[in-house]
Design brief:
four-stranded mixed β-sheet; Glutaredoxin; Arsenate_reductase-like; Thioredoxin-like_sf
């Protein structure tokens, strides 16, 4: 799966939750092209998770809901390598604490539905001018 710069990728494990529904509504205000990925139906590879983590600039453990009983039973107290944490994410997407949105090579964890709006602000302020529209420098 590749990330298209004009497409907002919305990743969640429970699209029917109130946070999921509200985040989806806000996503449509950020981009006309929203690709929704329900992790119950789609399995991300460890490589894809690693790319998302790099965009988020966080560790796999930071994405997990530590209050989830399954986290408490299976994950808490264990020490994992990076590969191990990526395997935990890949095999237990239901442990995600919030939806993740990816847009314009940036990502955000949407703990509140309005967190997705951070992508809109960032994309406007850092948009690059296409080469054919750049001012010409004459020496």
């Amino acid at each position: 799966m590749q990330f298209h710069p004009n497409e907002l990728l919305l990743i969640y494990h429970d699209p029917s939750s109130s946070t999921g529904k509200q985040t989806r509504a806000y996503a449509r205000s950020v981009s006309n092209h929203v690709n929704e990925v329900d992790l119950h139906n789609v399995r991300f590879t460890t490589t894809l998770w690693k790319e998302i983590l790099n965009m988020l600039d966080c560790k796999p453990k930071d994405l997990l809901d530590k209050s989830n009983p399954e986290y408490q039973a299976k994950v808490r107290g264990n020490t994992f390598t990076m590969t191990g944490w990526l395997e935990v994410l890949m095999n237990n997407p239901h442990l995600l604490k919030a939806p993740i949105a990816v847009f314009n090579n940036r990502a955000v964890v949407c703990q509140k539905p309005t967190d997705i709006l951070k992508l809109e602000v960032n994309s406007r302020s850092s948009s690059k001018v296409p080469p054919h529209l750049r001012p010409r420098v004459i020496e």
